[in-house]
């Protein structure tokens, strides 16, 4: 299947019993295992919502979303932190701010590295922005991304939390070599999409 065709014709479907997940295979065994063994059960327990990215009848990717919070003290920009503290009339830096978390995002290895992940991420972010503007108040999107995906998210304006600064001071290449699935917690202020 041609990647440009996929980019123009993909759609999101909520994961259900009817979907055959056996042919989906991304580069991460952990992400494959989640989709095939845990996603539906967690979704039925209302712990996440997994959207399959379909083109024709093929699963080309998936994304799993859930609620989250971000500690106010871990937001890097002092002006943003102060603005939120002022608007909420709070003085504590221990306050947590609501967010939506991208729990998992995976592209089938047949279509990886061709811009489909970026296309899907931007679509998800604009859908979340629409929710934030029309349905429920939220300002941040979080992700706990693998070291191998750190640059992918950073290139889309995600910023690591201060608590991960120590890990990032090491060379990312060394971390990836040592443990490619080590995770980093990153966030995006939806205002960058305006």
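-> sequence recovered:
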């Amino acid at each position: 299947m041609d990647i440009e065709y996929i980019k123009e014709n993909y759609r999101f479907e909520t994961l259900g019993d009817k979907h055959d997940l056996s042919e989906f295979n991304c580069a991460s065994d952990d992400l494959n295992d989640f989709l095939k063994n845990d996603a539906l059960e967690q979704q039925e327990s209302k712990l996440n919502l997994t959207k399959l990215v379909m083109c024709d009848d093929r699963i080309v990717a998936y994304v799993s979303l859930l609620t989250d919070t971000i500690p106010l003290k871990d937001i890097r920009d002092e002006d943003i932190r102060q603005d939120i503290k002022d608007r909420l009339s709070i003085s504590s830096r221990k306050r947590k701010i609501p967010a939506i978390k991208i729990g998992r995002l995976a592209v089938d290895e047949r279509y990886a590295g061709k811009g489909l992940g970026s296309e899907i991420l931007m679509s998800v972010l604009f859908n979340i922005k629409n929710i934030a503007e029309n349905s429920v108040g939220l300002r941040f999107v979080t992700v706990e991304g693998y070291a191998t995906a750190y640059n992918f998210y950073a290139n889309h304006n995600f910023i690591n939390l201060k608590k991960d600064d120590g890990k990032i001071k090491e060379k990312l290449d060394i971390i990836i070599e040592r443990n490619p699935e080590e995770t980093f917690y990153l966030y995006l202020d939806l205002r960058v999409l305006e």
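The longest helix spans residues 116-134.
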